[in-house]
Every structure is written in structure tokens, then in C-alpha cells.
Design goal:
- The chain is mainly beta.
- It has a domain of about 55 residues: Probable tRNA pseudouridine synthase domain (Thrombin, subunit H, Beta Barrel).
- It is globular and about 55 Å long.
- The relative contact order is 0.31.
Length: about 90
């Protein structure tokens, strides 16, 4: 697991905004410091030096407890899947 950043805010529609120190891929899984799954990365935006990440939580339970908490992410090793290879003609 790699360090993602700290939770900045919770949006009105229930998404989590994280101020990231590294840039994760979309659909990477996000965890808290106790390795509990928080959700998945849905969008990366903002400046290149310190981007923001939108996380879609797996549950809508009390998300305010995540404010200012450290988050981590784990990338998915796809092993060559979805490379866009073309079939032979």
C-alpha cells in the first residue's frame, strides 16, 4: 500500500476529497490507516504538484470521521489485460 494523502473534505453528495501527495490510477482501492477499505478513486484533478482525488466511498455511513485522516491506496495489477491488442485478420 502506498500513502495517498489526507482527507480534505466530504462533499454534499457523499464523495471524499483527498489532497494527494502521489497520483493514483482511477479505480484504485483506497484504505484508511487500519487497512479498512474506504472506497475507490473516481477522479484525479487539480495541479500536477499536489492533485486532488475524488473517492467514491463503499458505504454512506458517518463519513465525517474521515476528515483529516491519512489514506492509502493499492493499485490493481492487471497483468496485461485491457492493453487494447488487436486480433489477427
Amino acid at each position: 500500500m502506498d500513502y495517498l494523502g489526507e482527507v480534505e473534505t466530504i462533499t454534499h453528495d457523499g464523495k471524499i476529497i483527498v489532497r494527494a501527495v502521489t497520483t493514483p490510477d482511477v479505480n484504485n482501492t483506497v484504505f484508511d490507516s487500519l487497512e479498512h477499505k474506504i472506497g475507490t478513486v473516481k477522479r484525479v484533478f487539480g495541479p500536477v504538484d499536489s492533485p486532488y482525488v475524488t473517492v467514491l466511498p463503499t458505504t454512506k455511513a458517518d463519513l465525517n470521521g474521515y476528515l483529516n485522516k491519512k489514506t492509502y491506496f493499492k493499485g490493481e495489477n492487471r497483468n496485461g489485460k485491457d492493453k487494447g491488442r488487436r486480433g489477427r485478420n
